[in-house]
Amino acid sequence: MRLIRRSRVRSAFAVLSTPAGRIDNLLLTPAGLPVVVECKLWRNPQARREVVGQVLEYARELSRFTSADLQREASKKG
Questions:
Q1: Is the Cα dihedral 36, 40, 45, 50 positive or negative?
Q2: Which end of the chain is more exposed for a tag (fewer CB within 10 A), N or C?
C-alpha cells in the first residue's frame, strides 16, 4: 500500500448522498482515485466493525456512479 500526502488529496464532496447513505467526505487523489472518509466518535469499540461495513457499502455504490452522476451531485451543491 502506498501512502499519499495529505496535501495532494483534494476534497470532492463534503457530503455525498448514495443509495447506501451519506458519505461524510469524498476526496480525490491526483490520479482521480476516490478516498472515502467516514467520521465517527471513537468511544464505541463496536463502531470500528460497523464503519468498515459502511465504507464497503459506500464503495460498492460509488463503483456504480458514472462521471455524469458525480457531475449531477456536484451541481446540486451549487
A1: negative
A2: N
What cell numbers appear for 3 in the block?
A: 501512502
pTM of the predicted structure, to 2 decimals: 0.74
**Each residue's pLDDT tens digit, 20-53:** 999 999 988 888 888 898 887 777 777 777 888 8
Strands (E), the chain: 10-13, 16-18, 21-23, 25-28, 34-37
Give the chain's end-to-end CA distance (angstroms, integer). 35
Yes or no: say if 6 and 22 are a contact pair by the CB < 8 Å rule: no
CB 51 within 8 A of CB 42: no
